[in-house]
Structure formats: structure tokens, C-alpha cells
Amino acid sequence: MFQLNAKRHSFIRKRMNSILAALEKKYFLIKMYQRKNILLFIAVFVVFLYYESHSQCNCLGSGLGGGLNQPAGTTSRGILPQSNFRLQALYKHRSGDEFFSKDINQGKGFINNFQSDYLGILLGYGFSHKLTVEAEFAFFPNHKVDYYYKSVNEFGSPSFYLSGKYNVYSSYFKKFEFTAGAGLKTAFQPFNYGLLLHSFLHKGFGENALDFYMISRAELNAKNHNDFQQGHNLSNSFFLTKNVFEDLLAIAELRADFAVKDYQGKRSLDSTGFFVLTIAPQIVYSFSDFYVSALFDLPVYRYFNGSQIATRNPFAISLGWQFD
Fold it and tell me: Is the separation of the CB atoms in 65 and 271 below 8 Å?
């Protein structure tokens, strides 16, 4: 009799474990879909702001690196639900008129000021509940630099990114997710390419609607046909998100961006490379399957090699749509 009870208890335990595993998978997918507004707009800003940060490298001379290349985020984020599409568009404006050497504000330099407008589009598709593929395209319709005696307007080099990401581990009950991915980047004027690596980590905390995210991205750049190589760079962002109301989300981001010096042949360029620490408050409002968001950058520490012009408090507005 005791042996029969033991076998019965063993069967019940195995059955319960199987049911719990199925429920965990089901509710994780439901939670993923419910969290799409959070992932979507963390994604919007970190995708395009990172690209916008580094795509203008050396376009107007090495001395302009700090402002014209100043970092603003990463590009990695979580996966999409299976068979879902994500379409996003972002506009960002930047300007600056002060030069920094190391962490010292030097005031005015050989540039009076610069103004830059950026547009980006991203399309993502969830091939499965673990694999997402994304394509990003971006360009600068306006990129104006005032040299006192004349103004130069450059449109910047259009760039294209293609990447995939895979959900390595996820648990609804532990409120934990880790996703990693890789891809390729291409710039067209002049032609250049590089390798993209990124990761996404999420941890939820209880029933207080508070979530923590860590998003990282690295770009390894190759030399172009002019023997110029943009410096390799790394961005890490830490997010805390909180639902203010049902359709309104508040995000606090702490971002650290680092880039090594650019190279021309075997010679490093003096006024390139930086470290910037930024606080970026953000708000997201959702309605149906559409989302609108706004971001404002507040640099708290800046260190530039050589002498570089710095960006003054850029802002961004984004629209997004997620559908199946």
C-alpha cells in the first residue's frame, strides 16, 4: 500500500511539474505581449539614438567628434511575439556651441555652433517566440555647421543595420529575461561596414509594476576605402520603468557611452574618442496598438580627447506601431 502511494505521489508530482512548465510558457508569452509598450519604446530610443550618435564620425573633421558623434544610447532590446511586426519612426534634434577638452568646458571654439536633425525607421519581425529579426535605416536631412565665416550643410551618410536576436532564457514566475544578438552595419557615403553585438536583460520586481532593464551594444568598425576607421564603441543603458497610469509609462535611464579614438591609416586622430554619462527621462503614451514617446538628454559627466564640440541637451520624439 505504501509503495502504491509513493508511486501515485511521484506521478502527481511529475504531472504538476509538467502543468506548471506549460503555464509558465503560456503566461510568459502573455506577459511579453502585455509588456510590448515598455519594450517598444525603450527599443525606439536606444535603437535610433545610438545610431544617430555614431554615424556622423569625422564627416567635418576630427575636431568635431564630441558633438557630432556624441553618444545617446544603445540599440538592443527584447524580442517580439511570434508573427508580430514592429514599425517605428523617430525624429531627434541636436545643437551645440561649446567645446570640451577632457572634462573641462572651454567655451567657444573654431565652430560657432551646429544644428542637426535626424530621422530613423526600424522594422522588426518575430519569427518565433525566441527569435526576432530587425532592419534599421537612418539618415540626416539636415546637418549644419556654422564656422563664423561660412556655413556648411551636410546630409550625412545613410546607414543600414540588419540584426537578429535570440531569447537565451526567460521565466515568467522569476520575472527574468535575457536576450542576445548580432548583426551587420553598412554606411554608404563612403561605403563602410562593421559588426554589431547587443544584449538585453530584464528583471521585474513583485506586483509594484517596477521593472529594471540593462541594455548593451558594441560596434566593431572596419576601415573604409580611404583607410579611415571609426573608433570601436560600447554603450550600456540602465532603465527603471513605472506605470504612472494605465496608458502612461515613465522611464528613467542612466546611460554610459565609450568610444576609442578614430584611425587614419595607422595614426590615431587626437580629437576623437570620449566617455559620456547621461540621465535621460522619458515618457511613453499608448493608445490601441500605437505609441508616442518623448525623451530629453541631461549629460552629467563628459570626457573628450583633444578638443571637441559637445551637444547641448538633445530631445527626441517617436511614433510606433506593433501589429500581427
Answer: yes
CA distances (Å), 37 to each of 28, 283, 321, in order? 15, 11, 10
Q: Strands, DSSP E only, in 222-297? A: 228-229, 233-245, 248-259, 263-264, 267-268, 274-287, 290-296
The residues near 147 (Cβ < 8 Å, ≥ 6 apart) are 110, 111, 112
Integer angstrom CA distances of residue 292 from 81, 248, 266: 20, 10, 45
Angle between helices 2-34 and 36-54 (to 10 degrees): 50
For residue 113, how far is the Cα from the chain centroid? 27
Q: Is residue 232 part of a domain?
A: yes
Which residues form the domain of 282? 35-323
Task: Give the amino acid at 189.
Answer: Q
Cell reading at 57: 564620425
- Does residue 137 fall inside a structural domain? yes
Domain annotation covers residue 9: no
* 243-295 residue pLDDT tens: 888 788 888 999 999 999 999 999 999 999 999 999 999 998 988 888 898 98
Q: How many domains does the chain have?
A: 1
State the pTM of this model: 0.78
| 3-state SS assignment for residue 282 | strand
